[in-house]
């Protein structure tokens, strides 16, 4: 896994945070918490959900069934990390992103809310580093460029209210997804640096 873009964001009164883009498999990254693109039934599935459950083992599904009755779209729930603890992951946050239905069904608010809730839960659990996939941008069909913009804006804003989180990493599985996030990060960097002169985009493509 190679980090290719890092945005350093100043936070008045708190340690600065970084938003990073990496290309690779989220089940291999060493962070305190990883976010899963789950469904509202918390029933498991394909995509990154399948990969995380396979890597973590059956313990996750047992805990989900015991503690939660599903997860409304736009929200998230937290569990332990099963076998992912082997490389330092302590929490898995299962977020329910929206299915893309053309853009008129509140998709943007729901996607933003899925990221913000995930970041809040990570902060409450004391996580300092969190990895995200491109929620809703696979099976759920959210257009990549829009999904990337919503994701990065939400995480930048959420870092303001989750001061314990110092590092947010988007782990992007395909070249297309990575390219869409890199473009959106460059736009966010330009906008953020006008408001916060300490903001810097490093190591971009
Ligand atoms: N690491 C990182 N990203 C991954 C991985 C992985 N191991 N596997 C897939 N991805 C990427 C996909 O390429 C896509 O960019 O995660 C992004 C999200 O895609 P999906 O996993 O299809 O998630 P989503 O679009 O939110 O759909 C959720 O799919 O798996 C089911 O149970 C899940 O019903 C839910 C739905």
Give a written overview of the molecule.
This protein has 205 residues and is of the alpha/beta class. It has one domain (2-196): Leucine Aminopeptidase, subunit E, domain 1 (3-Layer(aba) Sandwich). Helix content is 36%, strand content 24%. It contains 5 helices and 8 strands. The chain has helices spanning 47-56, 59-67, 107-124, 144-158, 175-195; strands at 2-11, 14-23, 33-38, 76-79, 91-96, 129-132, 167-172, 200-202. It has an 8-stranded mixed sheet, with helices on both faces. The chain binds adenosine-5-diphosphoribose. Adenosine-5-diphosphoribose (APR) binds at residues 25-27, 37-39, 45-51, 97, 133-140, 171, 173-174, 177.
- What is the number of E strands? 8
Element-by-element helix/strand order = EEEHHEEHEHEHE
Q: Please, how many helices?
A: 5
Bound molecules: adenosine-5-diphosphoribose
> Unreliable segments (pLDDT under 50, ≥5 consecutive)?
none
**Whole-number radius of gyration?**
16 Å
Percent of residues in helices comes to 25-40%
Any idea what the shape is? globular
Count of discrete structural domains: 1
Main sheet record: 8 strands, mixed
Roughly how many Å apart are the termini? 15 Å
């Amino acid at each position: 896994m190679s980090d290719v873009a890092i945005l350093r964001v100043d936070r008045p009164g708190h340690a600065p945070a970084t938003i990073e883009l990496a290309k690779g498999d989220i089940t291999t990254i060493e962070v305190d918490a990883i976010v899963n693109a789950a469904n509202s039934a918390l029933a498991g599935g394909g995509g990154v959900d399948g990969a995380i459950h396979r890597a973590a083992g059956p313990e996750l599904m047992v805990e989900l069934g015991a503690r939660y009755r599903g997860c409304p779209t736009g929200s998230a729930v937290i569990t332990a990390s099963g076998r992912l603890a082997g490389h330092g992951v302590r929490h898995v946050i299962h977020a329910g992103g929206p299915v893309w239905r053309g853009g008129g069904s509140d998709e943007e608010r729901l996607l933003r809310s899925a990221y913000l809730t995930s970041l809040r839960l990570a902060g409450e659990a004391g996580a300092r580093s969190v990895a995200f996939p491109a929620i809703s941008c696979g099976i759920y069909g959210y257009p990549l460029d829009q999904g990337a913009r919503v994701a990065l804006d939400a995480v930048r804003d959420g870092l303001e209210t989750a001061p314990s989180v110092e590092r947010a990493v988007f782990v992007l599985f395909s070249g297309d997804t990575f390219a869409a996030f890199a473009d959106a990060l460059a736009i966010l960097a330009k906008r953020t640096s006008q408001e916060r002169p300490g903001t810097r985009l490093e190591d971009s493509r």
